[in-house]
Design a protein that fits this description.
With about 260 residues, this protein is α+β, with helices and mostly antiparallel strands. It is about 30% helix and about 20% strand.
Length: about 260
């Protein structure tokens, strides 16, 4: 083969080899682009999935349940689990003996002297005297302090929830003031709003003059007054309530009740 043909043959072989190399390079570049596009797509899908997940979580985030408190001029609802003693029977009004009773509420905040009027409110006084003699009030917490609208400290619930009582209820309302005014020092029975037959063991101490409107059942049974220690109740009120509640900022426990 002449040198001219050899050079031509070598040139064609080189061009074919170069063409194969270019083809292979293009193929590699194409594969790289496909992989890159795939990675970008996967990342985009991942970001989208996270965004959707966050949106779902945010949209379904729980919110605080609304609260519901009793209006200041009404007694809280009352249900009465059975107490020990007396078999859940309402004490007879005759136990008040149509007379005045003197006594002392000993609390964790101090002593409160009281006088009960068995003539004006015989059923309420008979109830209170009987429960006190049984030690029913001992260790109970005064669960409710109202400092706006009316000014009362409410006690007598063994569960300290506003729904506890002695296992019975009674009525009707006795000795309610005609003008709806309850002077400082008044001791009266709590009850369910509109229900004069719903009294049990819960009572309240008025530490500042308060006007408590009557409802369908009338007013509230006044059965006594504070003779000493009104400053103790006032100090409890001055300390205020726990955040978001009507409970005294420091628990007030009735340590004992003596009646004579």
């Amino acid at each position: 083969m002449s040198s001219k043909r050899e050079r031509e043959h070598e040139r064609r072989r080189y061009e074919k080899q170069h063409a194969r190399q270019l083809q292979a390079q293009h193929a590699r570049q194409h594969r790289t682009r496909v992989v890159a596009v795939g990675v970008v797509a996967v990342l985009a899908l991942g970001v989208g999935a996270v965004a959707v997940a966050n949106l779902v979580r945010d949209g379904n985030a729980p919110t605080a349940a609304p609260t519901d408190t009793a209006p200041p001029d009404t007694a809280p609802p009352a249900t009465y689990p059975p107490r020990t003693g007396n078999d859940g029977v309402t004490p007879d009004a005759s136990a008040a003996e149509d007379r005045t009773w003197d006594g002392t509420l000993t609390t964790s905040a101090g002593e409160i002297g009281i006088e009960l009027d068995g003539a004006a409110a015989p059923q309420a006084v008979a109830n209170f005297v009987t429960l006190a003699a049984e030690g029913y009030f001992d260790g109970t917490v005064c669960h409710r302090l109202v400092t706006q609208g009316i000014h009362v400290l409410q006690c007598g619930d063994p569960t300290a929830t506003g729904t506890g009582g002695p296992g019975y209820s009674w009525g009707p309302v006795e000795n309610a003031p005609g003008d709806d005014v309850y002077p400082a020092g008044t001791i009266a029975m709590a009850r369910v709003g509109g229900d004069g037959e719903s009294m049990g063991s819960q009572f309240f101490l008025v530490y500042e003059d308060s006007q408590i409107p009557s409802d369908a059942a009338g007013g509230y049974t006044v059965f006594g007054h504070i003779t000493s220690g009104l400053d103790v109740v006032q100090a409890i009120a001055d300390a205020g309530t726990q955040d978001g509640s009507e409970r005294p900022v420091t628990d007030v426990t009735i340590e004992g009740v003596e009646i004579q």
